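Why do we care about 3D structure at all? Because function follows from shape, and shape follows, mostly, from sequence. That is the central idea of this module. The next example makes it concrete: a single protein chain, its amino acid sequence, and then its structure expressed as tokens.
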Amino acid sequence: MTIALITAQARPIVEGRLPPGIEPLWWETPEQLVDLAPQAEIGWFDMFDKSAPLEAIRRATGLKYLNSFFAGVDWLPLADLQARGVKLTNGSGINANTVAEFALMNMLALARGHADIVRAQDRHEWLAPSMDGKARELAGAKVLIIGYGEIGQAIGRMLAGFRAEVTPVRRSGADGALGPDEWQARVGEFEWVVLAMPGTPETRGLVDARVLAAMRSDAVLVNMGRADVLDQDALIAALHAGKLAGAILDLTDPEPLPSGHPLWSAPGAHITMHMGGLPTLASRIAAAERFIANCGHYLRGEPLVSEVDLALGY
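And the structure:
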């Protein structure tokens, strides 16, 4: 029998539906995960605290197939998995709509000053109407989306519904997209710059002080990708200098952000605490269904759905 060590959160959907030949073991606590890991040939080890999953991977010397709900896999020891011949699948596309809706919610909230409205309600204060023209519309706004995978495309589709002018950045630069060597020269054209690329050595530090300086002073940066694609210190300096209108940051470095960190008080910073991709019932079901199907593919020696290229990191 092939032993599959699976998070108990997936048990209501997965139990009784795995292909013949797979015996499931269910883990509920970090201690159970680590203790049972040496038995696993197939693993689903996801936790928000990564210490136990990483230790489980280290101890799972018989591991051949590892599944993750998360789209971003830069937290995993990819080189080690590659050297061990472990196949890895991720959650690419499963939570794309969830993340995209969250991004749009925050863009709209910033555009219309929603945070000030909520704080005024907390104070039981009726805000006076303003004619200062600071409120924005997404209709007609020029938006650059850097990284046009599942999440970037979902954000683009939703923005199109608001009649925003979306320009994607793709590796190929095809179909009206800008290529990786073109977008930096044109970043100053856009009112919104959305980061939705994976975290890889190639993308690390991609949005640096030079890119931030080239952006419009009324532009808003939205990071729904990875924290390390952005030079955070350069962003803080740009916000304090009034070089940008704001930044929506679902990712920060470190996480959790310490209470005294200067990013909290940077003007125009909207920190959403990595809430964009939190699982929904629909995404949990989709992840479990994909895992069930992939277990069958694994046993039959077939290609896996959403298999990660361990050399590229996505």
